Amino acid sequence: AKLQGPGSRIAYDPHIEQAAGHRFALMSRLGQDLRREALFLQFQPQVDMASGRVVGAEALLRWRTDEGLIPPSEFIPIAEKSSYIHAIGDLVLRQACQALDRLAAAGLAHLVLSINLSARQFEDPNLIPGLLETCAAAGIAPGRLEVEVTETTAMDNFAHVSQALSRYRDGGNTVAIDDFGTGFSSLEYVYQLPADRLKIDQVFVARLEHDERGRQLVRLILDLARSIDATVIAEGVETAAQAEWLTAHGCHIGQGWLYARPMPLEALIDFCGAAGAAA
Ligand code: C2E
Ligand code: MG
Ligand code: MG
Ligand code: MG
C-alpha cells in the first residue's frame, strides 16, 4: 500500500515484500531470457488514414515466458532499474535492423520503422553514435529507422537528450515524441524539441468521442504541432469516427486497433500487401 498522507502509518505489509520478491524474480529471469532471445519485436502498422496505405510501423517489444507474454509496461520499468535496459536497447536495435532488411527484400524499403528509447539509454554517451554506426554497418539507409522518446524522457535531461536527438537527425533520420501531451512539458521546451513527429497519446484520442472539451484539446495539440513544423500521428485509433475526425482536422497518420494490432513481421508484410491492394 502507498503512503496515504497524514495519519497513515508505515506498517509491515506482506504485499510489499511479495511485490519486491516478484520484481526480483522477474529481473533475474529477464537476465537469462535476454541471453536466450526470448524477447522479440512485434510490429504495428502506421496508416495513412485517408487511403489506408501503410507508411510505417512501430516496433514493440514482447517477452515470452512459460506463463505467457509479459507486457513491456511490466518489464521495461524493471529493466530500467538495472543495466538490462542497455542490453534490451541493443537487442531491439539488432532485431529492428534485421526487420528493415527483410522489409526491403519484400519491396517495402519505403516504410519507416520506429523504435522506442527509454530515458536511461541516454545515460550511454555512445547511444546515438552506436545507433548510427549499427545502421550504417547493416546497410540501412538514413531515414528508415525512427526513434521515439517520450516527452518525459526529453525533459529528464533536456540539454543532453536534445543534443543527442539533434545528432540523430543530422544523420538524416527522424525523431518522434511519444505519448505527447501527457508529460507536463513547458511550451518553451516543446518549441525547442528536435522533433519531426508528435504522437498524440491515446488518452486524447479516446476522448474525441466524449465531449467538446476533449476535441478542443486535440485541436490545440494539432495547432501546436503545426507551429513547430512537426507532423502528427494519432496513437490508439480504435474507431472509424475517431479516424474521420482526425483526418478532417489535419492529422493524417494513425496507429491503432482500428487498423491492426501489433503483429509478427511476416504478418506486417502480408498486411502491407493487402492494404496496398485495397488502396
Ligand atoms: P508506446 O510506445 O506508447 O506504444 C503504444 C502502445 O499502445 C503499445 O502498447 C500498443 O500495443 C498500444 N496500442 C496500440 N494501438 C492501440 C489501440 O488502438 N488501443 C489501445 N488501448 N492500445 C493500443 P505496448 O506494446 O504494450 O507497449 C507499451 C509501452 O511499452 C510502449 O508505449 C513503450 O513505452 C514501451 N515499449 C514497448 N516496446 C519498447 C521497447 O522496445 N523499448 C522501450 N524502451 N520501451 C518499449
Ligand atoms: Mg512508442
Ligand atoms: Mg505512445
Ligand atoms: Mg506509452
Automatic annotation (TrEMBL):
Coiled coil: none annotated. It comes from the Bacteria. Residues 23-276 form the EAL domain. This is EAL domain-containing protein. The chain holds residues 469 to 747 of 747 of the full protein.
